[in-house]
Specification:
The structure is a homodimer. Helix content of chain A is about 35%, strand content about 25%. By secondary structure, chain A is of the alpha/beta class. Chain A has 3 domains: about 1-120, Rossmann fold; about 125-290 and about 325-330, Dihydrodipicolinate Reductase, domain 2 (2-Layer Sandwich), CATH 3.30.360.10; about 335-415, ACT domain (Alpha-Beta Plaits, 2-Layer Sandwich), CATH 3.30.70.260. In chain A, helix 12 (about 350-360) packs across helix 13 (about 390-400). The longest helix of chain A is centred in the first third of the chain and has 18 residues, at about 95-110.
């Protein structure tokens, strides 16, 4: 085997292989830009170190591990490796989310493998779990906390009362967030992973760009507090759900309230979890370290072992072969949390209640904590289950009032009980 | 395929197969004692219903699903099926825990499969997760909540303040406990499952009878309360851990205190969870419904699909082929919880403290809730990490005091924090 990209994950893969976890694995080539500075002696005396991917492709290795990340040139490299008759193991969510079906067809045509367990939720063996572990079920929904940076930030806002900015700065200081955390915070990272999960678990081709994403940046300390009063926490939730009657699916990544006691609500720090709901097996959850060199390397090495043992699942079933993307419904039904920030005066609740009522939405509760200035007063309305489109329309309507100090924040409340079948019941 | 044993799980398997989850599966034979009363029309018009296992073996089915349960005659039937060149899928923990290695060798010799995902934790795909999902890791420890009956009883004692007897009666009324729950409550059920987990995940042959089990019957309402004061809950914990330097392993099933906030502590009702600790991947958890017809059937059908797809893992790696059982150490190090029930008088704490001190054990805390009669007063001592043998010796020593109204209950406290995995940079 050869490794392309000798960063944190690449080194961790080499370490595990050098440690002899599986005697059938042997590292013979490492390819990296400016490879001299990457060379380590513990990888073995026979390893060929090269700057050239072509040299790796021309070598006799049977499997190439792609760990350079990003879409380009990674995708072209994977194509090149498959064309040369190599199997490929990758941790690259961008390449798989955008080009997975085509690459898998190519692997199938060549009689080679393309495995990518590490592309979603790092060390959590969720893709194999979906394809094989719960193969006997008919899955309806997949929900996950797929971005460790967001989860770290939100749980620190909760546990230490930090502001979003301070929690993010702390995460960066501790290495839990990149210098540029845009992709994490705005949901694009989790969106790519969700597209892969929907493909493997629900059998639907989902275009990454069709998945709506909402950033977690608008979540403020006051929301964390109100969520707690509702028995909830706020999480960046990635969620894909089949719509009845084959009408495509709903898929989105957004901050949402989830029950404190739920599987999603209980994931802390930089961990990941994926919860699948099946028609027969109910709720099954997989959790663990979603990132970091060593856990991600475990997923890569598990893929390598499957190929070495000869029982890797063939390429054709990983993602739906048909290139026809499923329509992604943006609308969904759920109870909602709406936090207003207002310049207080009499009659505001009544005005808002009238607007919601006009849009056919029932109020569930109005919460207002004491101790805030009247000129910038946060308060919360929770709404009974209703369509997200109705909430958007009602809030567009309510924008005409001049008491808003800031635009309201609205979040769905995914609070159904684990055992409840089908839709969400807020009682 | 043919099914032997058409009870709750068998019917659920037939339902899933009839529902067309996987087009490659076809049910052609059902074998059950007195089969006429089992016949259903939805299974398909071509199904042959028979009382005779021999008829199933003589039929052209390629896979036989064994769901009759118990050790005999199930084991002989599985041998017979393999000898006739059939692959076998079973949910039978007793047969696999006691005879797994020999049966797998036989399957290997015949070039057939023997899969048993449903034998441990029902619908939770933990065996495949261990063998394939975290294959790239080197596992050190496996902990699980593997018995839904015990977990239901303990969580109901917690949440509703029920006595053990009332919680068990409720579980029986609701179908979460058998009419005779002995095997569940005394730990033998979880012990058989732990032996299988240790084989698949830690690569050690463990004789079921070598695994010490402690019943949960001695846990009283007062213990639930004291555990809560310590930030803990009480669970029936199945735990297998490799000892350093290849000195065998520790394995046991017993009630223990675990942190309320831990993965084990958060499993409620009749659910199961398995938490594995790996050298590289840190803590990875798998949870879901550990029993019930439909979830167990999902595991069976997933095994059938793996065989149909041709990527089932070959028999030789499921359990260690060598028949040499690993020595199972009964002793372990942990902080301990000791609850005394005494006829109160001055000097008792001092006397007990002296005994523990004499055995080299440091006290951590003494807890005594008000409101109990002096003549039958429960109080708790927690001990700093020490060997279980020292605790046993100290309590044997303390048995000479005449203030005991009942023998003390001592439980380990498995309260270590989920450790950080190797790397830290999130994605």
């Amino acid at each position: 085997m050869g490794i392309a990209g000798f960063g944190t994950v690449g080194r961790a893969v080499a370490r595990i292989v050098a440690g002899g976890v599986h005697p059938g694995l042997r590292l013979t080539h490492v390819c990296n830009r400016d490879v001299a500075r990457k060379r380590v002696d513990w990888a073995g005396p026979d390893v060929v170190w090269t700057d050239s991917f072509q040299a790796l492709v021309d070598s006799p290795v049977d499997v190439i591990v792609e760990l350079i990340g990003g879409h380009d040139p990674a995708r072209a490299w994977i194509e090149q490796a498959l064309a040369a008759g190599k199997s490929v193991v990758t941790a690259n969510k961008q390449v798989i989310a955008h080009g997975g079906p085509a690459l898998l067809r190519e692997a199938e045509r060549r009689g080679r493998h393309l495995l990518f367990e590490a592309a979603v939720a790092g060390g959590v063996p969720i893709l194999r779990g979906l394809r094989e572990g719960v193969a006997g079920d008919r899955l309806r929904r997949i929900q996950g906390i797929l971005n460790g940076t967001c989860n770290y930030v939100l749980t620190r806002m909760e546990s230490a009362g930090l502001t979003f900015a301070d929690a993010l700065a702390e995460a960066q200081r501790l290495g839990y967030a990149e210098a540029d955390p845009t992709d994490d915070v705005d949901g694009h990272d989790a969106g790519a992973k969700l597209a892969i999960l929907a493909g493997v678990g629900l059998g639907r081709v989902v275009r990454v760009d069709d998945i709506p994403v909402e950033p977690i940046t608008a979540v403020a300390a006051v929301d964390i507090g109100y969520a707690r009063r509702l028995g909830c926490v706020i999480r960046q939730v990635a969620r894909a759900e089949l719509l009845p009657g084959g009408r495509g699916l709903h898929a989105a990544v957004r901050p949402a309230l989830v029950s404190e006691a739920s599987t999603l609500g209980r994931v802390e720090g930089s961990r990941n979890v994926v919860v699948v709901d099946g028609e027969f097996g109910g709720e099954t959850a997989f959790s663990g370290f979603g990132a970091g060199g060593a856990p991600t390397a475990v997923a890569v090495v598990s893929d390598l072992i499957a190929i070495a043992r000869g029982n890797a699942a063939p390429p054709d079933g990983w993602l739906p072969a048909s290139g026809e993307p499923s329509p992604v419904a943006r609308e969904f039904e759920a109870p909602h949390y709406v936090r207003f920030m207002i310049d207080d005066r009499p009659g505001i609740v009544a005005s808002l209640a009238r607007v919601f009522s006009h849009h056919g939405i029932n109020l569930d509760a109005v919460l207002q904590e004491p101790g805030w200035p009247k000129a910038e007063l946060p308060f919360v309305m929770t709404l009974e289950p209703c369509s997200s489109a109705a909430v958007a329309a009602a809030l567009a309507d309510a924008a005409r009032f001049d008491f808003h100090v800031r635009a309201p924040l609205w979040l769905p409340m995914f609070v159904d009980r684990p055992d409840a079948a089908g839709g969400s019941s807020p009682e």
